[in-house]
Specification:
two-stranded antiparallel ribbon; 7 helices; single chain; about 10% strand
Length: about 200
């Protein structure tokens, strides 16, 4: 399963890069026209075995946004997100550069979401380190994914404790058929621009 999954990841990522390069040019131009800042954004992410890697994305937030607000998940009407960034996020186009992470072997197409080291959850006024939430460490038994069970089916506002349960369920039930289904559902969500939707995305 692991070897077949890796071969599939490399083949699909290579095809995705070959087909999407004109879109990369359009996105880069829009980001530059919007605020003149950098096109790409890199940040540390936690991968398989807890090893940290550099994750690539098109920049969707204002420059130095995390320096002001810290590493936390984006919320609705997030002041850190740019005008172009809002479109990138609802379509998940900001994550296109992660195809490079898949080719490098940092990520897979399907798996738990790659989180930032020291990332926190902010329920109310509390600041909870994600590493202290049950299920966090177990997620690192597999490569993180561009999409996954939690990304597709879990409400964006669901507490991480419950999202991690989706991740652990995927790790237990993972199969090539499940991966294909999650990729197909993810493309459908992208086509409808519903990645930032609260509630059911499908």
């Amino acid at each position: 399963m692991a070897i077949a999954k890796r071969i599939f990841d490399v083949a699909l990522a290579g095809l995705g890069l070959a087909l999407s390069w004109p879109l990369w040019l359009v996105i880069a131009a829009l980001i530059k026209l919007d605020d003149g800042g950098p096109v790409f954004y890199t940040q540390p992410r936690v991968g398989r075995g807890g090893v940290t890697f550099r994750g690539y994305k098109f920049r969707s937030m204002h420059v130095d946004a995390e320096a002001w607000f810290g590493p936390r998940q984006a919320a609705g009407d997030d002041v850190r997100v740019t005008r172009v960034g809002r479109w990138l996020r609802v379509t998940a186009m900001d994550e296109l550069p992660q195809l490079l992470n898949i080719l490098r072997g940092d990520m897979s197409f399907v798996g738990p979401r790659a989180l930032m080291p020291e990332e926190i959850e902010t329920p109310g006024a509390a600041r909870v380190p994600l590493a202290s939430i049950p299920g966090y460490a177990a997620r690192h038994r597999v490569r993180p994914g561009l999409t996954g069970l939690a990304q597709v089916f879990a409400d964006r506002d669901l507490p991480r404790r419950q999202k991690f349960r989706y991740d652990l369920l995927y790790i237990r039930r993972q199969s090539f058929a499940l991966d294909l289904r999650l990729i197909a559902l993810s493309l459908w969500i992208t086509a409808r621009g519903r990645w930032e939707r609260r509630g059911v995305k499908l």
